[in-house]
Structure formats: C-alpha cells, structure tokens
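Recall that a protein's primary structure is simply its ordered list of amino acids. Everything else, from secondary elements to tertiary packing, is in principle encoded there. The following example makes that idea concrete.
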Amino acid sequence: MNVVISVFGLTKYFHDIKLLLVVSVIVGFSGSFISLLLSKTIAIHSVNAQIITTPQNATEKWLLNTVANQANQWNLAMPQVAIYSSSVPNAFATGPTRNKSLIALSTGLLEGMTQDEVEAVLAHEMAHVGNGDMVTMTLIQGVINTFVFFAANKIAEIIASSQNNRALERGIHYLVSMVLQILFGFLASLIVLWFSRHREYRADACAARLVGAPKMIAALQRLKGDSSDLPEGLTAFGIASDSKDSLLATHPSLDNRIARLRGM
C-alpha cells in the first residue's frame, strides 16, 4: 500500500489532515482484518492440522466432548477442534469471531500430559475464545497501525515539503515515511506485546475458575523446559511460554503465571 500510494503520487494530498486520517485507517485496519478473517485457514495450513470431524478413537471423542462442555459453559458455539503433529507440547486458539473459532493441540501435548492437564489447556484456549482475544488483538493492532501510518506520513510530509523538485519531494517522503513507520511500528509493538502478556494471565485465571487452579498449575508446570515451535504468526496464540519476562515477550514466564494462579 505504501508503494502504491507513493507511485501514484497520492502523498501530495496528505497535507489534508482528514484525508490522511482516512487513508491511515484504511491502511491500518485492512491488513489486520484480512489476517483475522483468514486466521483459521492460515493456522490450519501452517501446522498441517487435521480437524476432527468424526472421532476415530477414545481420545478424540473425549476432546470433542470436553470442548463442547466448556463451550456450553461460555455460551459459545462449538469451536472446531484439530490435532497437528509435533513433538513439542503446545496448543492455540484462533478464529475470526467467538463463535467461529478453532482450537488446535499438538500430538506432543496429548501424549505428554494427563487428561486433567489437557482439560486445563483446553480451558485456557477456550478462555481466549470466550474473551474475544483474537478480535481485541486485531482492533488494537489496527488502531496502532493507523497512528503509526498517520504520524510517519505527517512528519514525512513536513520534511519533504521543503523541496522544490516534485520527484525529489516524493522520494524523500517515501523514504522518511518508511523509516519512521519501522521505528514507530517497533515502539508501538511493545503495546501489543503488553496486551498479549496480559491476556495470558487472564486466560489462565479463567481456566482456573473453569476446571480448578491445581489442574492449570500442573499443565503449566508440565510445559517447563519446552519452547514454542509454532510459526511466527501463531506464536502469540500458543500456550507455551517464554522462559523469562521481557518487553518483547508474547507470554509472561511460566513461573510468574504459576505464581499468579497460586495467589488466586
């Protein structure tokens, strides 16, 4: 979008604050909403997950029954349930709306955890769905993208307007706006990552209320020593945690998550 705007010389209209704001909203939210709408499809293909339609064994039957029961407690439509092949214990939830969601679990998680621990993981992912975290994350990202694009282009327009050569002005505007978008985008991502960590604490607490804190604590303890092997775009949605707290982490550390649960 930045390239198209620059090639067609649309930046010359950015002196109009209202027009710049409208363009910023379009640019800021379009990518986020496209990602949200395609989230299930992208997730399934990214990890080659197999959706359970007809249970083939007792484990799959138990998974569907457990998810259905938890969905009823949240007053939600039944999410799709999928399993993907990975030796790393992990799970994630995604989807465009609360009632069109997907919960996926790795084979490593199913093989390495007890039934109570898997139930807690499912409750954690169901909490993400019930809390509408996917939509909230999209809205936050869209707002932040809007302000990043607006601020970067407004500053670039002020800097480039001093040039008498139109072609040079457009080139300077493009370069300055791109550099500023990268810089502002990095700073703004700290807000998104803060929310990502916050929602993990909230999902843990909701899961503890749904199935009991001991089960959730046991599940988190079982994850110690493992790291996420999900594609980068799905890392924030997985249950596996970062080993230590950081401003750049998508999850709080497991120790802090466990401490929060023990303090409930």
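The CA atoms of residues 38 and 96 lie 8 Å apart. The longest strand covers residues 91-97.
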